[in-house]
Design a protein that fits this description.
With 375 residues, this protein is an alpha/beta fold. It has two domains: 259 residues, 3-Layer(aba) Sandwich (Aminopeptidase); 108 residues, 2-Layer Sandwich (Alpha-Beta Plaits), CATH 3.30.70.360. The protein is built from ten helices and 16 strands. The radius of gyration is 24 Å and the shape is elongated. The two termini are 22 Å apart.
Length: 375
């Protein structure tokens, strides 16, 4: 029996696992709910033959780690089971199938990927195929910055020869060979208050200064190269007739390369006020470094493309402006291939869905890629 034949014979199990994960809603900030989902994840990985451990957390959900013994090479399979949807959302976004698509909160980002991973590992065991040692790490706070999981992610990556990230695929099912780095800066201006009508010279407007700085920072943007700088939130001042003593802007930054991240970070750190009576503070930075298409990433993609071709499909590649935990592993120099989850669309949207027919193929593809990385 081939990998694809086995995975197709297990479609009912795979579908059951996807639905069970979606029904266990798991918003990032609800530890109790995330941990309930984590127990389901852990059970699936145990059933697949993994040695499972929970990485306990105080405020966030417990991360799930599973190790599958194999050859001397070590491979990290990475993902998350927290979602952006609050508990109860499934009442207004119920699990349903229509036109070959399975809809539900978190199904595409990325609970179907978890079920696919478990199915791929079951296939390797059932068919007794040679594989490297595989460590699976599914985390609980990717959607809110990976604050409690980044250390574990980077530690596992340093011990691995490659990282496969089970985040949603690109439209059409392609893999992600590059991602932008993601940053958030907070620029705060401290001015001098005064009556705007009676004694304006006495004041120094934090709002006026901030407006100038936001316009200046916009010059860092180069959309054609993938560099974006967006002041998405601004607050400040008290009344229209008071010169503002305080103003703050929260600025989103996306960059395609580490060199761009360094340059833009330096530009923020060296900001000087136009009005010397206003004091500026800069906080934040590029928290997720970019996943660049290095030679190692390109080689890993070619191996994945060959595995897909052996199963009758061409695996496309591309990039995205959003970040994932794969950004962290790639920045360590570990070859990282992202977007290996099943085909679908609507991440973080009310029409979130996966293509049902792609699920068994995707499991067979992942298992085939894993065996190909054993040598």
């Amino acid at each position: 029996m081939t990998l694809l034949e086995f995975c197709e014979s297990q479609q009912a199990t795979l579908r059951r696992d996807v639905e069970a994960l979606v029904r266990h809603e798991s918003p990032s900030t609800d530890k109790a709910a995330v941990d309930r989902c984590g127990q389901v994840v852990a059970g699936m990985l145990r059933d697949a033959g993994g040695d499972v451990a929970l990485l306990r957390q105080d405020r966030r959900g417990d991360h799930v780690r599973a190790e599958f013994a194999g050859g001397p090479r070590r491979l990290l399979v990475l993902g998350h089971f927290d979602t952006v949807w609050e508990v109860g959302r499934i009442q207004t976004m119920p699990l349903r199938e229509a036109d070959g698509r399975l809809y539900g909160p978190g199904v595409f980002d990325m609970k179907a990927s978890i079920a696919v991973t478990a199915q791929a590992l079951r296939a390797l065991r059932h068919l007794s195929l040679n594989a490297p040692t595989v460590v699976v790490l599914f985390t609980t706070d990717e959607e809110i910055g990976s604050g409690t999981s980044r250390g574990a992610i980077e530690a596992e990556a340093r011990e691995s020869q490659a990282v496969l990230v089970m985040e949603p695929s690109l439209p059409g099912g392609g893999a992600k060979t590059h991602r932008k780095g993601c940053g958030e800066f907070t620029l705060t201006a401290h001015g001098v208050s005064a009556h705007a009508g009676i004694d304006p010279r006495r004041g120094a407007s934090a709002i006026h200064e901030l407006a100038h700085q936001v316009c200046t920072l916009e010059a860092l943007q180069d959309v054609d190269r993938g560099i974006t700088v967006n002041a998405g939130r601004i607050e400040g001042g008290t009344r229209a007739n008071v010169i503002a003593e305080f103003a703050r802007a929260v600025i989103d930054v996306r960059v395609p390369t580490i060199a761009d991240a360094v340059r833009i970070d330096a530009a923020f750190r060296t900001i000087s006020p136009r009005n010397p009576r206003v004091r500026l503070e800069v906080a934040g930075g590029v928290e997720r470094p970019p996943l660049e298409r290095t030679d190692g990433v390109a080689r890993l993609y070619e191996q994945a493309r060959n595995a897909a071709a052996a199963l009758g499909r061409d695996l496309a590649e591309g990039g995205t402006g959003g970040g994932s935990d794969g950004n962290f592993t790639a920045a360590l120099g570990v070859p990282t291939l992202d977007g290996l989850g099943p085909e679908g669309d609507g991440a973080h949207a009310v029409d979130e869905h996966v293509v049902v027919a792609d699920l068994p193929w995707r499991a067979a593809f992942l298992a085939s890629l894993v065996t190909g990385l054993n040598g």
